[in-house]
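Researcher: Last one for today. Full complex below.
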Amino acid sequence: MSDDTNNTLTEQRFAELLAAYGADATRWPEAERSAALAFMDNNVNARGMMRDALPLDQWMRASEASVPAFSGLEARILQRALPVGASAFIDRLVGWCLPASGFDVRQLWRPLAAASLPLAIGLMVGFQVELSPDVYATTVEQELYLISLSDYAEIL
Amino acid sequence: MRTAILESDGAADCHRSCANAETGAMVDGHRMLTDEEVMAAIVAGDQRVYADMVRRHGRPVALYAYRMLGNENEAEDIAQETFLRLWTQAARWQPGKAALSTWLHRIAHNLCIDFLRKHRISQDAGLEEDLVDTQPTAEESMATEADHIMLQAALGKLPERQRSALLLTHYQGLSNREVADILAVSIDALESLLARARRSLKNYWQSASQQSAVTGEKS
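Model: Here's the assembly. Have a good evening.
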């Protein structure tokens, strides 16, 4: 018979916790752990459920000693050459342009700076082209010869 | 959030060594970096911090892969690839979304699932090899090894999602919220996966124990 005195957790929820997380209370969700332990202290059925759930946990724990040691794993991982390629550069560029941690001024000016870079390059190229009058002079002469207006060309 | 100061031995024990915020690297042997500081350092190419992360999380990640795949060599390959991605994709980590250990487990989990789908591994085949290679020297180690083999066999029979849910919660020491995040399910759905996984394990264990008891009586 149940002598439940704790209203914050139902017997059904206690059974669900055991079914999902097992009999080791340290694995129960932190938010419900205290209530579940208090419930178990005051509930005979809950203690019975706990006893039933224990052997499976013990079996799962017993096998932990036989897992591979993976000796030297860290050294082998660290021996592997780390790439410093295009992808790393792009990731760093993206990381610089869009800093992920918190909101600060970097989140505004860095994307703006990155976005305005192509505009600045376009303006520079545009000015360079306009400031080359020799190109147009030569082109006009060539055009005149091409359309066979040689007389007019001689006058010029 | 700043992590606590930990001992500098690299947390060799896999059980719960990846839990919560205990993920940072050591600086000057005593101060822990936060996850954000660690990832910023790795993005900047700091190999010392990267090496500390490998020492801290290497074995837990490999053990998770081993329990998922049932094969030590494949598990090591998964661990290698996980840490390569830590190096190359550190800039994609978002601090508010997941702790660093959770992020690493998600990478390892996805690699394991990809591997299982590509190779359609027969867990039982790998376990038979283990049985042949195993030469226990004492009764206790035999019992433990038998438990281990039986558990690996039982885990191998679970559907991938149930297996992942159980391993991440039970052996990797992640919280239910972190595991739900890795598997992209709700907490309710995670609890359902866990309950089904444990029920299947219990049934397998009980029937295997009965079988071995009958075999023992005959011999």
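Chain B is about 70% helix and 0% strand. The CA atoms of residues 70 and 126 of chain B lie 7 Å apart.
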